[in-house]
Amino acid sequence: MFPVDMTEQRKKLMATLAVVVNGLPNLDSVLPAASALARRHVAYGAKPAHYPVVGGALLWTLEKELGEAWTPDVAAAWTAAYGMLSGYMISEAYGSIQAAE
Fold it and tell me: How far apart are CA 20 and CA 29, in angstroms?
């Protein structure tokens, strides 16, 4: 699914995370981009089952990078945000959240 050289993919991921985090106060501003991204992911071969795996990797990475700043409240906030956004993207890409089951 990904190229051998992940440099560009890393940049895209960080840019996307920045847009999402900065857009959380006005979630409606983020959802159209998330919908388009979800549909592109289908074309790349992403499956609903990939979303929890990616989420786990993202949360693990944040925990390791944030160290002591990764508090239970921070973990809960990131988990909730990822769960909401990934659920929305699955629904947009596959028609229903049940597609992830």
Answer: 9
